[in-house]
């Protein structure tokens, strides 16, 4: 009996310890999920800046003393909260044809959110491994977290064609001076700075004494530096306005009606009517697939367009295209330019297609239908291209989804003067999706130093200047036009010139500075100790 009692005394503490560890992990995963959900409120249209340090500091503190595997789970819970709420609007697209795809909405969004949550999980696990391998001061720990987070975001923007949606730096977008740093280091660099400053309060909470004060002052200095750099950028000179007048047409055609054969004439007539409202313009802009058919094959439709284009005006419109080939007909999602005679001047084919929306990956193995109507999968175009139109500034085209990719919108060899973003956000109704999509277009304007002009079927057409400021807009559900002058461009930004090499330079410079400061402080402590002993 005595031996059995002794054995029970040994086993019970082990069981209790395991229960305590599981309870602590579950608590931290819950904290991570809530913190991840809070990040949604930091992005447009909410842009609650005070929640940025709350969310990321909560994750930073919650990862302390965790193993690689447990940190991965906490980071995954954070990502599940972030994406589960942040991209819930994707479900709207499944209900456009609810009889065919409605039952897939919740499983699809849940599965996608769970998959995307792997990237915050990678960041958390990487941070835990870095800090486990060596003792770090508060500053180095914050840099390790920001670096890990940025690496994971960069991977999310590139792996399996990428999905760089709601990057951490977009929390600064609605604050004019704060977003300008993207002109130097791009969106990923802006995320690095945002997350680094955001976790400093968490590090201050975990620190003590003089170190707490140092970390707190570092957070204030970081905010001040980002604001100062942005203010300086806003005050710098831009190029002269090009003197070009634009007309953006937002037809506001419900997605469920757009491709119905009986609605084709009404859709086309609406765009023609809005295009001919009184007013002067040089360039007429219609959104993605504004014409529900193959316009280059429709002589009558092009003649009606020509009647609306007078005095050398040009139309840029989204339109599907098809080309015969040896392997059968190939379909493209394009923007085509037409002159006042109805002649096609030039065109651009979308190169970054939406998986399951414009093509089905691994079609030979996945028995899944596309969400969008059409005769076949779209074929990607060759890549970013600058279009030359007679008498007009050079223009780059980004169709819908393409505008979300940092550094992949503009042809590096032939820099344009502006970017035309033709899109169709009718898929997502009145959700926060169109606002988040607009946010990507605004940050591209800052990165490239170029105005971005959006024409949407509905939600949200806009004129965005080279500083990311919205000059004019038409909201979701509105039918109408925007008449505006084309804003001026800036000289090429550092990010436009060097791309994500600027991110690498920022990270290396930050670590070099921090390690030097850490080594200097350590040397001073050692010297003081030696002098005290010798004295």
TrEMBL record:
Organism, as annotated: Puniceispirillum marinum (strain IMCC1322)
Protein name per the record: Apolipoprotein N-acyltransferase
EC number assigned by the record: 2.3.1.269
CN hydrolase domain segment(s): 249-488
Matching Pfam families: CN_hydrolase (PF00795), LNT_N (PF20154)
Pathway named in the protein's UniProt entry: Protein modification; lipoprotein biosynthesis (N-acyl transfer)
Function: Catalyzes the phospholipid dependent N-acylation of the N-terminal cysteine of apolipoprotein, the last step in lipoprotein maturation.
Record has NAD as a keyword: no
Regions that span the bilayer: 31-56, 68-91, 103-128, 134-152, 184-206, 213-234, 501-523
GO biological process, any: lipoprotein biosynthetic process
This protein's GO CC annotations: plasma membrane
Major localisation: membrane
Gene3D superfamilies linked: Carbon-nitrogen hydrolase
One annotated GO molecular function: N-acyltransferase activity
Keyword annotations from UniProtKB, A to Z: Acyltransferase, Cell inner membrane, Cell membrane, Lipoprotein, Membrane, Transferase, Transmembrane, Transmembrane helix
Compartment annotation: Cell inner membrane; Cell membrane
Topology versus the membrane: Multi-pass membrane protein
InterPro entries in the record: Apolipo_AcylTrfase, C-N_Hydrolase, C-N_Hydrolase_sf, LNT_N
């Amino acid at each position: 009996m005595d031996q059995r009692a002794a054995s029970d005394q040994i086993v019970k503490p082990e069981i209790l310890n395991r229960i305590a560890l599981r309870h602590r992990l579950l608590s931290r995963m819950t904290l991570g999920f809530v913190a991840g959900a809070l990040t949604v409120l930091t992005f447009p249209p909410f842009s609650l800046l005070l929640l940025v340090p709350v969310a990321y500091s909560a994750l930073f503190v919650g990862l302390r003393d965790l193993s690689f595997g447990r940190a991965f789970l906490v980071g995954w819970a954070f990502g599940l909260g972030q994406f589960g709420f942040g991209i819930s609007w994707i479900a709207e697209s499944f209900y456009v044809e609810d009889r065919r795809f409605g039952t897939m909405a919740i499983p699809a969004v849940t599965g996608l959110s769970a998959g995307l949550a792997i990237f915050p999980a990678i960041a958390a696990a990487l941070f835990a491994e870095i800090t486990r391998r060596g003792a770090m001061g508060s500053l180095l720990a914050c840099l390790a977290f920001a670096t890990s987070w940025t690496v994971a975001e960069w991977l999310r923007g590139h792996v399996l064609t990428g999905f760089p949606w709601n990057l951490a730096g977009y929390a600064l977008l609605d604050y004019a001076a704060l977003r300008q740093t993207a002109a130097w280091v791009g969106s990923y660099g802006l995320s690095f700075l945002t997350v680094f400053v955001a976790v400093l309060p968490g590090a201050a909470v975990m620190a003590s004494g003089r170190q707490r004060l140092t970390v707190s002052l570092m957070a204030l200095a970081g905010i001040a530096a980002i604001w100062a750099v942005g203010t300086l950028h806003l005050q710098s000179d831009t190029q002269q306005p090009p003197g070009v007048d634009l007309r953006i047409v937002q037809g506001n055609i419900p997605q469920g009606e757009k491709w119905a054969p009986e609605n084709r004439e009404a859709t086309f007539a609406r765009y023609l009517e809005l295009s001919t409202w009184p007013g002067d313009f040089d360039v007429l802009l219609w959104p993605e697939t504004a014409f529900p058919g193959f316009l280059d094959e429709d002589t009558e439709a092009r003649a009606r367009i020509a009647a609306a284009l007078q005095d050398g005006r040009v139309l840029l419109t989204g339109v599907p295209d098809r080309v015969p080939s040896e392997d059968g007909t190939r379909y493209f999602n394009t923007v085509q330019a037409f002159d006042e005679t109805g002649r096609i001047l030039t065109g651009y084919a979308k190169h970054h297609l939406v998986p399951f929306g414009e093509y089905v990956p691994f079609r030979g193995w996945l028995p899944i239908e596309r969400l969008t109507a059409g005769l076949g999968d779209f074929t990607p175009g060759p890549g970013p291209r600058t279009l030359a139109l007679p008498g007009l500034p050079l223009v780059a085209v980004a169709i819908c989804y393409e505008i979300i990719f940092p550094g992949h919108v503009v042809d590096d060899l032939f820099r344009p003067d502006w970017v035309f973003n033709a899109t169709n956000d009718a898929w997502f109704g009145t959700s926060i999706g169109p606002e988040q999509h607009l946010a990507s277009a605004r940050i591209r304007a800052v990165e490239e130093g170029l105005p971005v002009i959006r024409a949407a079927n509905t939600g949200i057409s806009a004129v965005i200047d080279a500083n990311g400021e919205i000059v004019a807009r038409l909201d979701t559900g509105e039918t109408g036009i925007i008449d505006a002058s084309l804003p001026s461009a800036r000289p090429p930004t550092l990010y436009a010139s060097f791309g994500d090499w600027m991110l690498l330079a920022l990270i290396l410079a930050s670590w070099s500075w921090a390690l030097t400061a850490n080594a200097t402080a350590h040397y001073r402590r050692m010297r003081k100790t030696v002098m005290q002993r010798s004295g």
